[in-house]
HTH OST-type domain-containing protein
Amino acid sequence: MIKQQQPNCELLLSNFISTYHSQFSRQCRVADYGFSRLLDVIDSLNSVVHIVGSGPLRTLMLTHGIQLRRFTHDVLRVLKSEPKKSCPVSHFATLYEQVFRKEFIASNYGVCDLNDLLNDMPENVITVDRTSNMKQPDFSEPGLLDVNKLNGHREHWIQHS
């Protein structure tokens, strides 16, 4: 419900019941899930969602791990659209827009920028690498290079492993 319907995959907690009703066309009865309070239901899903903020601004959000899984899935879709299954990081936003027909916004995945997401990517799924030879990236040592240490003359690459 949060992933599919809400911008940035977040939902004000105060809107949860009405959103649930409109999404599933039935009342949200926490007793159906074995609980007496909505917060108890949400707490039981702590590996998937968590609440941030306080008071009327309490917001239900996907956890970082779930956001990272979403991003990993989306990166794979972008890379699979490329003939060599790789792309320079500097071209990722453009390729993302071509594949998903919407702008790439890192905050939609719960982080500030693309490097934050790439730093947390599972190494067995994609390789993030830099090379001084822009025409032929070196993928021989996946995960060796830290994406935060960018040099002006080097290009950053991502590749499906």
Remarks:
- Residues 74 and 130 are 21 Å apart (CA to CA).
- Helices lie at 2-5, 16-24, 38-44, 64-80, 92-100, 114-119.
- The first helix runs from residue 2 to 5.
